[in-house]
């Protein structure tokens, strides 16, 4: 029974649940991107190529053997769009993380003590004396 307890502990950890949610959302996102590429981008590519449906393009090798380079091109376009979207998500999360860290640092900065304030005033007065009398 200790193996089942260990498995239960493992499966209920936050990282595993987060990963599962990410995989499900990724699968749904992939279907959306597939539709965007197949239904929006590829028809535009077809118009630009003179009405050719690029996704159905094949290179016949011998008899029934052929290479479906059109579907491959569509898959590459899907990959690039998904990769760019993931780049934007990561970039946004990093920016948010930097913002939170900066806010925490601003809150965590302690107020200078009375001694530090006095030393700062003395430093500023000494700088003024070096630069000459102020009129």
What keyword list fits this structure?
135 residues, Non-ribosomal Peptide Synthetase Peptidyl Carrier Protein, Chain A, two-stranded antiparallel ribbon, 5% strand, elongated
Would you spell out the secondary-structure blueprint of this structure?
Elements: H1 2-11, H2 14-48, E1 59-62, E2 65-67, H3 69-108, H4 114-130
Antiparallel strand pairs: 1-2
Helix pairs in contact: 2-3
The main sheet orders its strands as: 1-2
CATH topology-level fold name: Non-ribosomal Peptide Synthetase Peptidyl Carrier Protein, Chain A
Q: How many structural domains in the coordinates?
A: 1
Q: Which spans of ≥5 residues are poorly predicted at pLDDT below 50?
A: none
Beta content comes to: 5-15%
- The CATH homologous superfamily: Large-conductance mechanosensitive channel, MscL, domain 1
Please count the helical segments: 4
Silhouette: elongated
Name the structural class.
mainly alpha
How many strand units? Answer: 2
**Which CATH-level-2 architecture?**
Orthogonal Bundle
Radius of gyration: 31 Å
What's the SSE pattern?
A: HHEEHH
At the first level of CATH, what is the class?
Mainly Alpha
């Amino acid at each position: 029974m200790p193996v089942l307890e260990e498995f239960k502990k493992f499966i209920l950890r936050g990282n595993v649940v987060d990963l599962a949610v990410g995989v499900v959302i990724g699968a749904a996102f992939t279907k959306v991107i597939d539709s965007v590429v197949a239904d929006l981008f590829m028809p535009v590519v077809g118009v630009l190529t003179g009405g050719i449906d690029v996704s159905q393009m094949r290179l016949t090798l011998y008899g029934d053997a052929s290479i479906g380079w059109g579907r491959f091109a569509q898959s590459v376009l899907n990959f690039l769009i998904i990769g760019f979207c993931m780049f934007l998500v990561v970039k946004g999360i990093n920016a948010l993380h930097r913002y939170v860290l900066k806010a925490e640092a601003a809150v965590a900065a302690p107020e200078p003590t009375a001694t530090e304030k006095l030393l700062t005033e003395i430093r500023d007065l000494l700088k003024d004396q070096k630069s000459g009398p102020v009129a």
